[in-house]
Amino acid sequence: MAQQVPAGNAVHIDVPLARRLLAAQFPQWAELPIQPVEAAGRDNAIFRLGTELSVRLPRRELGARHLANEYRWLPVLAPHLPLPVPVPLGRGVPSDGYPWCWMVTRWLPGDVAALEPGLDEAQMADELAQFITVLHRVDPADGPASELRGVPLVQRDPGVRAAIGVVHGDWDPEALTAAWESALAVPSWVAPAVWTHGDLHPANLLVIDGRLSAVIDFGLLGVGDPAIDVLAAWTVLSSTSRDHFRNALGVDEATWARARGRALDFGLMCAANTRHGSDVSQIGRRTIDQVLADTDDW
User: Fold this and answer.
1) Is residue 2 pLDDT above 90, yes or no?
2) Can you give the residue ranges of every domain in the chain?
3) Where are the beta strands (DSSP E) in the chain?
4) Least CB-packed of 73, 129, 292, 293 within 10 Å?
5) What is the mean pLDDT of residues 245-256?
6) 5 to each of 12, 58, 62, how far by Cα in Å?
C-alpha cells in the first residue's frame, strides 16, 4: 500500500522515483530520457520525458486534487479551445511509496511567460481574449463549481484585509483598501456560471518568440463567475493593452470591476504569503501595481 502523507505535506520527488513509476505503470515510455523542469510550481514536480511527453507528479495532496480535476475535464474541453493545453495521455496510480495519482501529458513547447521579456502584449491580449471567450461558451453542464477563486468576493474580505496589513510597508494601505472596497460594492454574479480556467497569470502561459503559444495548469478549472478569468487584464497585461483586451472580450462594467477585485485578491495573496523575490511574489506584486494604476476606474 502507498505511503500515507498528511494533507498539505510535500513529498520528495526526483528522477529515480519518476523512472520507477514509469517502469511499473507505463513501460512503453520508461526508457525515454527524463529531466526535471526548473519552472515547475509548488503543487507539481514536472519532468520532460523524451521530446514529446511530460510527467507531472503532485508534491502535496492539494496538487493531487487539482491534477484529478484536470484529468477528468481537460479531454472534454480541449477540442473546443483555440490554444494547445496539456491533455492527459495516461494516469498513474500511487505506488512505490508515492501516495497520489500522477499524469503523463503531451509536452507543450514554449517558455513560461513570467520568465520571458519582450512579450507581444497586443497579440497576448487578442489570443487571451479569444481563449477566454471560447472557454466561457463551452457547455458547463455537470462541471465542478469553481472553489478557491470562485467564491463571492465578500467571502475573501477577511483574508484580503489581513494581507493588506502584511504588505502595508510597500503600498499605501488606504489605496489598497479603497480599491478592494470598490470591488466589494459591485453586485455579485447572478447569471448562469461558465467554465473558467481559474488561474490565468504569466506562470501558466507559454510563449514562443514573445507570442502566446499555450495555456497550462488547469488545476483550478471549474464553473463560476467569468470575472475569474478576466483578472488576466491585471495579472498578465498592462495599461497599454488592457483596454484592447476589454473591448475584445466585450465584458460588462460589473464583470470588469469584479475582475479587478479578484486580481487584487490574487496579487495580495501572492505578495503576502510567498517568499519575497520568488516568481510568484513578483507576479503578485506586479498585479497589485497594475490594479493601483487603474485608479480612474474606481
Assistant:
1) no
2) 15-108, 112-297
3) 34-36, 44-49, 53-58, 88-92, 102-106, 111-112, 194-196, 205-208, 211-215, 222-224
4) 293
5) 96
6) 11, 12, 12
CA angle 178, 263, 198 (to 5 degrees): 150
Domain 112-297 class in CATH: alpha beta
Residue 201: C-alpha distances to residues 104, 212, 234, 287, 288 (Å) = 23, 12, 9, 9, 13
- pTM of the model as a whole: 0.92
- Say how far apart CA 194 and CA 139 lie, in whole Å: 8
**How far apart (Å, rounded) are the C-alpha atoms in residues 266 and 274?**
12
Kind of pairing, strands 53-58 and 102-106? Answer: antiparallel
Query: Is the C-alpha dihedral spanning 242, 245, 250, 256 positive or negative?
Result: negative
Give the span between the Cα atoms of 285 and 96, in whole angstroms: 40
Residue with cell 487603474: 294
Give percent of the chain above pLDDT 70.
94
